[in-house]
Amino acid sequence: MEKPDNQQRTWKKKSTMKSSSNTEAIATQCVKVVVRCRPMDEREIARSYSRVVDVIPSRGVVEVRHPRDDPSSETVKVFTFDAVYDWSSTQQELYEETVRPLVSSVLDGFNGTIFAYGQTGTGKTYTMEGSKADHERRGVIPRSFEHIFNHIGRSENMQYLVRASYLEIYQEEIRDLLHPDQSLRFELKEKPDIGVYVKDLSTAVCKSATEIQHLMNVGNQNRTIGATNMNEHSSRSHAIFLITIEMGTIGDCGGIRVGRLNLVDLAGSERQSKTGSSGERLKEASKINLSLSALGNVISALVDGKTTHVPYRDSKLTRLLQDSLGGNSKTIMVANIGPASYNYDETLTTLRYASRAKNIKNKPRINEDPKDALLRQYQEEIGRLREKLAQKGGTQRRKKKSKRKKEDDAMDSDSEDDNSRGEDNKTAETDKKLIAEQLRAEKQEAETLVQRIKDLESKMLCGGKNIIDHTNEQQRALEQKAAEIAERKRREVEMQQKLEDEEVTMVGVRETYTTLQQEVDVKSRKLRKCFTKLQALKQELEDVTSDYNRDRRDLEQEQHELMKELKLKYLIIENFIPEEEKTKILSRIHLDEEEDCWMMKDPEPSSVDVIKRPTSVPGARRPVSEYARIALAMGRGCRYAGDNILNLDLDMPARTTLDYQGPVIAPTIQAVLEEALRDEGDIDVDASSTRLRTRTRMQSAARVRPKSVTKMQQIPAPVYPKTRGLVPK
Ligand code: ADP
Ligand code: MG
């Protein structure tokens, strides 16, 4: 195995040893945060935007000036990081100085994660993937492929198994970018021995940098499928490329290590406007950056020092990368920013976010003897197959011997007895054939075994094959030099930062001075610096408070919208959903903690008898009911053959009416009613025509002489029966 190079030592040096065990010292190590500022693009140059960002790589400092401030003004915001890269930095510099040490650690069995964070269009994808066309502008991912396979090629006496997966998180849904079916969504699961993983995620064994690069291209192509607007999609989704490297010494089944490398191109960190959206749109908008805000919350909780609960479970991203934040992983965050004035707010937000992440402490640990190591399974299987093959070889030899013996026997008997020759010959022939057949079958089986061993062995990679190419002294020396330069640069930056810190703090104030004037000068200078720093801090405090207030207002607004939505839903439920339906639904619904959503249980099987459908009967052409079968057996013809197959009865709903029941009447009223309805016998009505005529005449007379009306009304009308009261007086 290769000796740890300079950079690996760097990792160890930067760590502060906490405790040591027999196998590996567990040290805490902070997340390494670097900032990269991209150059102004053509559009920005054409519109002559001013540059508000200053990057000073030698001091590890980024300065941001307010667009309204004078370029010469002293009021700049200063941020310090492990390393900073300006617009002229190359992909190689970033890889050699920052990323190589981490990938080397992964090749030693550590977990490693690289995040690219920042606003859309600031160079996250450029940093991670880079340009395909230009070899010099390859990003972190292709460079790490090359690094890994070069390392394996150079190693001696080691066996490796490299696997890769590629996934995407979009609106809190996981897509496997290497799966042929892109409509599938995958779930996160957790096991005590392996931690959080994506269930059924495809992994491909890779044997070379070209192969793994091809895999990445396939994934990237799949990423574009189904996305109507690729720019928008990639700025709202997180892409994670996972590489697992298992390693072990050849011939030693124990002592397997596994390193995992997560390469993460995060969604754009810009603020998503949620105002004005409602319903589905609101839900969508709240999901878009859920993973990113959860990441921010996890970082805050980790660096806070007081919070005991770290909200990893709030999003898919933070759950999946739990180990990379405050866990056992080595982590790098590349914060990407843009230089132009119109990006001022977002740039500041990114720098503040990155600044906080610097304080996350991890405890990197080598993963030794993992239970699920595929390498060991392969090694063991090869061992078993070899043993089987050896046994097969033994029996085959024995069989060949016996075949030869039989032939000899046949020859002997040939000469001994001519009479029995015919019969003996026949048995010998069949025996020979049988053995030959067996031999052929076993040979075939052995070949299959050899092929399987070859298959398994081809998946595992051993070093030393192309030692001549790779141990090319010049190349090695070059890499060594580059590593040394990177290390020196890193130390210089560290020293510079320490010096500046000391200058600002009052360390050294009690120096002795030759003259009073000199003392006054030095002290006034220091005081001025301290004062400037104080002002800057005050300003920062103000900015952060106003940012905080803005975020709070946004959240309140969002909460208000959600409350409105909730009230509407309540209104509908309370007024339009029958009470019993609501109770039924409530009894079936439960909260799935794992998925963090409400789930509906299947309804209990109904107590109402389900009518049994006729089943298929052997020999019959279609399902036949019991009745029809008996009828058929009794010779009643085929009339009932199809009977009861279709159930044409109406499925009557439950009755909602009652039969009419007459009213109950009190006995006194009943008696009165009976009295009233008693038969009266016939009533004579005299309707003779004279009377009618008289009346007509009288009516016309009345019209002429209205005064005589009262007189005429007094005349009793004998034709009608007398009125009778219903209630006796
Ligand atoms: P993001 O993934 O953050 O949305 P991109 O990586 O797509 O941003 O970058 C946006 C554009 O800026 C691309 O055209 C890319 O080539 C260019 N770019 C970004 N960073 C650099 C850089 N350091 N040097 C040169 N060009 C860059
Ligand atoms: Mg991108």
Tell me what you see in this structure:
The protein is an alpha+beta fold and 729 residues long. It is built from 21 helices and 20 strands. Strands 3, 7, 8, 9, 10, 13, 14, 15, 16 and 18 form a ten-stranded mixed sheet that branches. A three-stranded antiparallel sheet has the order 1-2-17, with helices on one face. A hairpin with a 7-residue loop joins strand 14 (237-249) and strand 15. The longest helix has 61 residues, at 516-576. The termini are far apart. Mean pLDDT is 79; it is low at 1-24 and 690-713. Bound molecules: adenosine-5'-diphosphate and magnesium ion (MG). Adenosine-5'-diphosphate (ADP) is lined by residues 38-39, 41, 118, 120-126, 235, 336.
Which percent range fits the helix content?
40-55%
Shape: flat
Name the bound molecules: adenosine-5'-diphosphate, magnesium ion
Low-pLDDT sequence parts: 1-24, 690-713
Mean of residue pLDDT values: 79
Report the count of strand segments. 20
Distance between the termini: 127 Å
> Which strand-content bin applies to the residues?
15-25%
Structural class: alpha+beta
Spatial extent as radius of gyration: 46 Å
How many helices does DSSP assign? 21
Major beta-sheet overview: 10 strands, mixed
